[in-house]
């Protein structure tokens, strides 16, 4: 027994030593995991702040900053819609919703990115037999452009994005990354430095148009949009309206006169650089020659819904080409070029009578507030209403396919709610509670 006691003591000592070493090891491991977690958390926070600096490919990570794909529940939007709130209440609700539903996505594969947005596709009648071409002329706010793109996206359409050459490189990179994730979305092969009121705005459309006519997608109509536009109708509803058009163009225009932008085409205009480096268009004292082929100039808007036949004619017709060359030193030729061509007898789908009637865009001008529509519930910027959530009912009641203008940074909730509205209507095409009456329109002047 005396011999065994030391052995037992030695065994007990070994057990205690092992326990001590295990305790030390566990403490070290716990500390290591804590530090590691802190490093990972720090890295993720840094990653989420990183800006895009290059292009992505279909297999690479798609870096971007955007708002949540499913930001606001439709029930919440209905609640806002049904409450007759004051502007102060609406502002408070808007701030609360935008903060609680904002999502900053650091990186996602193209597969994850596109699958996320697939949930927003309108359900219902398949529109693959009526593809549409879209032209998006954009220069800022990548998140809002993404939201617009995905609200008009279907796999059967084709989308050309013209990105202003002077836009920040990170903005261009984000949209290039988005385009890389889709077979039917692309950046225009030729980009312009777009100057407000200049020929470059018209040229940007034409650059995309040249790309689109060579696309394998046999689109029926082309619609051009700006980055601050947003759809008021689902893709099924847009197609329903275009079917009613039956090949006719939606290009409003009235004859120009001295009182309606007359000097824009009577005098030569130059693009000049200001002292701060900004480019602008200025009128000179030099008079222009008359329009070619004795064409009568019509004043319209820069936005259109035009048939493929019309656009193919625009790119090949001699009168259209000569008018395009003549317009290069005018002011805002995009606001008379399409309208003028649409009035010519040879224009496919054209309409010779003057009209401002159009289904393209709902817009509130300060000049007509209280006369043609209720007051703007957002704010005015350069006499145009930036819509707020209080404008939602008016927008729902509109027959127009799109509306302008929206600003994601000013009031994200109106955009989020319209996105939810489109999804809701797409899933319930026979429920007309939140649909404009007598849609699609059949009373347009060129249809009567």
TrEMBL record:
Keyword vocabulary terms for this entry: Glycoprotein, Glycosyltransferase, Membrane, Signal-anchor, Transferase, Transmembrane, Transmembrane helix
Main location class: membrane
Compartments where located: Membrane
Chain ranges passing through the membrane: 12-33
Keyword Transcription annotated: no
GO MF term list: acetylglucosaminyltransferase activity
InterPro entries: Glyco_trans_14
Biased composition (Polar residues): 46-55
Gene Ontology CC entries for this record: membrane
Membrane topology according to the record: Single-pass type II membrane protein
Pathway entry: Protein modification; protein glycosylation
Domain of life of the organism encoding this protein: Eukaryota
Region (Disordered) location: 46-68
Similarity comment: family membership: Belongs to the glycosyltransferase 14 family.
Protein name stated in the entry: N-acetyllactosaminide beta-1,6-N-acetylglucosaminyl-transferase-like
Organism: Branchiostoma floridae
Lineage: Eukaryota, Metazoa, Chordata, Cephalochordata, Leptocardii
């Amino acid at each position: 027994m005396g011999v065994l006691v030391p052995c037992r003591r030695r065994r007990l000592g070994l057990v205690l030593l092992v326990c001590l070493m295990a305790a030390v090891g566990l403490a070290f491991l716990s500390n290591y995991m804590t530090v590691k977690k802190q490093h990972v958390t720090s890295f993720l926070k840094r990653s989420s702040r990183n800006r895009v600096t290059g292009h992505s490919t279909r297999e690479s990570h798609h870096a971007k900053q955007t708002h949540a794909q499913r930001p606001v529940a439709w029930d919440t939007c209905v609640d806002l819609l049904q409450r007759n709130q004051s502007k102060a209440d609406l502002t408070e609700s808007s701030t609360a919703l935008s903060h609680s539903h904002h999502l900053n996505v650091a990186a996602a594969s193209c597969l994850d990115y596109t699958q996320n947005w697939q949930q927003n596709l309108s359900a219902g009648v398949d529109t693959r037999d009526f593809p549409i071409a879209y032209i998006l002329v954009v220069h800022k706010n990548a998140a809002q452009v993404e939201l617009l793109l995905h609200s008009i996206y279907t796999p059967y359409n084709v989308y050309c994005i013209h990105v202003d050459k002077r836009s920040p490189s990170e903005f261009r990179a984000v949209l290039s990354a988005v385009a890389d994730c889709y077979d039917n979305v692309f950046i225009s092969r030729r980009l312009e430095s777009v100057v407000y009121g200049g020929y470059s705005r018209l040229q940007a459309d034409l650059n995309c148009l040249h790309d689109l006519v060579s696309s394998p997608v046999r689109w029926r109509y082309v619609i051009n949009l700006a980055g601050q536009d947003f759809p008021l109708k689902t893709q099924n509803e847009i197609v329903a309206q275009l079917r009613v058009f039956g090949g006719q163009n939606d290009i409003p225009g009235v004859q120009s006169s001295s009182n309606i932008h007359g000097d824009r085409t009577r005098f030569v205009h130059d693009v000049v650089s200001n002292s701060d480096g900004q480019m602008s268009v200025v009128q000179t004292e030099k008079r222009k020659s008359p329009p070619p082929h004795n064409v009568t100039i019509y004043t319209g808007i820069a936005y259109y819904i035009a048939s493929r036949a019309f656009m193919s004619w625009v790119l090949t017709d001699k009168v259209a080409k000569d008018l395009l060359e003549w317009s290069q030193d005018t002011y805002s030729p995009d606001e008379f070029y399409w309208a003028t061509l649409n009035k010519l007898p040879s224009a496919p789908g054209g309409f010779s009578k003057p009209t401002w009637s159009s289904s393209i865009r709902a817009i509130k001008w300060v000049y007509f507030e209280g006369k043609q529509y209720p007051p703007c519930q957002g704010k005015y910027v350069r006499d145009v209403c930036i819509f707020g959530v209080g404008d939602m009912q008016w927008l729902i009641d509109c027959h127009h396919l799109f509306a302008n203008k929206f600003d994601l940074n000013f009031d994200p909730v109106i955009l989020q709610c319209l996105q939810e509205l489109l999804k809701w209507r797409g899933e319930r095409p026979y429920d007309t509670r939140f649909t404009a009456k007598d849609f699609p329109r059949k009373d347009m002047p060129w249809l009567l």
